Amino acid sequence: MSDAPINLLDFDPQGLTQYFASVGERPYRATQIVKWVHQQGVIELDAMTNLSRALRERLAAETVFRLPEIMTVQESDDGTLKWLLRVDNGNCIETVYIPEAERGTLCVSSQVGCAVNCSFCATAKQGFSRNLSTAEIIGQVWIAARHLGQNPKTHRHITNVVMMGMGEPLMNFERVVPAMRLMLDDSAYNLGRRRVTLSTAGMVPGMDRLREECPVSLAVSLHAPEDALRDVLVPLNRTYPLAELLAACKRYVADSPHDQITFEYVMLDGVNDSPAQARDLAKLLRGIPAKLNLIPFNPIEGADYSCSPQSRILEFRQILQKAGYVTTTRKTRGDDIDAACGQLVGKVLARAARHRKVHAEATALRAGA
Ligand code: SAH
Description:
Elements: E1 6-7, H1 13-22, H2 28-39, H3 53-62, E2 63-64, E3 69-75, E4 81-86, E5 92-99, E6 104-107, E7 111-113, H4 122-125, E8 128-131, H5 134-150, E9 160-163, H6 173-184, E10 196-200, H7 204-213, E11 217-221, H8 227-233, H9 242-254, E12 261-267, H10 275-284, E13 290-296, H11 310-322, E14 326-329, H12 349-354, H13 360-368
Helix pairs in contact: 1-2, 5-6, 7-9, 10-11
Bound molecules: S-adenosyl-L-homocysteine.
C-alpha cells in the first residue's frame, strides 16, 4: 500500500461507504461526510460535530481533504468568472462559471491538456500532461460553489455543470464518473441528470459505458458533416468515424425517449459553414433526437482559422431549423479573459501574473480554506 494519505475528496458516496466499511465504521458515516463537505462546504474535521472524537482523530491521522490551489480568479465584463487552479508543481487547470438570467453554468476540466488534438482548440496546443483525479475534478465544483456562496453581492448558484473545460472527459472515465456521481447525489450537489452534461469529441466506447454507468446529458463535438473534413478537424474521427459515432449516439438515447443529444458545431469561415454543408448535416442527423449548438469560433494563437461571418451563421442555422432541428448559436462569454470555448490553456504558471483583474479574494478564500 502507498503511504500517501487517502484524499477523502477522491470518493463518491459509494466509495466513501466502502472506505468506512474497510475501517470498521458504519455506512451512514459516508453520508455525513458527503453532506459536510459537498453540501455545507466544510472540510475542517473539527467542525464535523456529528462525528465522534475518536473518528475525527482517526481521519485526521489517516486522511486529508486536498483541493486544487487557487492561483487567480478573473472576472469578465459580462460576469463570467475564471479560476486558474494549480493541481501540482507544474500544472494548472481552468474552471469557468457562466451566469445567465435563469441559470449558472460551471464549465469543469477533466484533464491537464488534451490528447485529442483538434486543430482549432487552444487546449490541444499545449499537449497532454495527465488525467485529473476525482478530487481535482469535484474540487473545481467545491471551490466555485464556495466562492459563489460567499459572495455577498450576488445570489449566484451552480444550476448546471458542463464537462466542457480542458480535456476529453471520456478519456478519464474512471475519475470523471465518480465526480459526476457527486454532482448528482442529493446529499452533495443534487443536480438532476439533465443538468450535468458531458461533452465528448467522440470516444465511442466511453459513450457506451457512460450510458450504462452514469447516463447524464451528452454533447458531441461534431464540427463536420463528412469524414474527410472531420478527420482533419477532430483527428479522433480516424479511430471512430461518423457512422460509428452516430450509431453510438442512437444507442445512447435509445432507452430514454425524452433525451436528446446536443451536437456542437464550431463555425469556421470557409471550412465547414456552407449552405450545402448545413444540408448535409441535417441529412446526417436524421433519425437521431438531436439539438444543434453552433459555436462561433474563438480565435486562438497558432491556428489559421477565422470565425464565420454572422450572416453565414444565421443562414446555416436557418437551414437546420427548417429541417426540423432545434438550433441555437452559443453566445460567446468571457472572451476578454480567454475563458471562451477552446481558449482554456491553464498550464504555464507565469501567465497568471500577467493577467488583468487578479482578485485578492482568491488569496482570501485560500487562506480561509
Ligand atoms: N473534449 C471535449 C470537451 C471540450 S468541450 C469535447 O471535445 O467535446 C469544448 C467545446 O468547445 C468543444 O465542442 C470544442 O470542440 C469547442 N472548441 C474548441 N476550440 C474552440 C474554439 N477555438 N472556438 C470555439 N469552440 C471551440
